[in-house]
Design a protein that fits this description.
By secondary structure, this protein is α+β, with helices and mostly antiparallel strands. Strands 1, 2, 3, 4, 5 and 8 form a 6-stranded antiparallel beta sheet that branches. The chain has 4 helices and 8 strands. About 25% of the residues lie in helices and about 25% in strands. The longest helix is centred in the middle third of the chain and has 14 residues. The relative contact order is 0.23. The chain has one domain: 7,8-Dihydro-6-hydroxymethylpterin-pyrophosphokinase HPPK (Alpha-Beta Plaits, 2-Layer Sandwich), CATH 3.30.70.
Length: about 160
Amino acid sequence: MDTGEVVACVGIGANVGKARAAVHGAMTAMASLPQVRLVAQSSLYGSTPVDATGDDYVNAVVKIHTTLSALDLLHALQALELSAGRTRPYVNAPRTLDLDLLLYGTLVLDTAELTVPHPRLWQRAFVLLPLAEIAPELVPEAALQAVRQQAVWRLAPA
């Protein structure tokens, strides 16, 4: 890894329209961002909406190396969401694309704009299972056990 690069993990989800295509498109778009290098991507997983309504989600996690600051990376991810048609009509609304900055190196930050690690990271099986697939060293077994009752399944490749 080059000096100045930070390892970050991003959660990807979609449940409106062509969700599988949106998740794959987000992976491709992230890989083409300046100062971002995609180093791993999980399989796709399905999950039922949590604290929300709508169709089942397609989820994945990617691991990147970046020289962007955490806030600049967040803004780049939000721009990708917007370009994919993301709207925010109400809290937990169905999404054409949802990109969550889960981890940014060892940074711990809690501001009005950004919280890392992601505040619900350890509560969501649809994040922990794909994260454990690509970065098992980041997910303690106890964390996986804590979410084992949540309905999440690996999707077959299309």
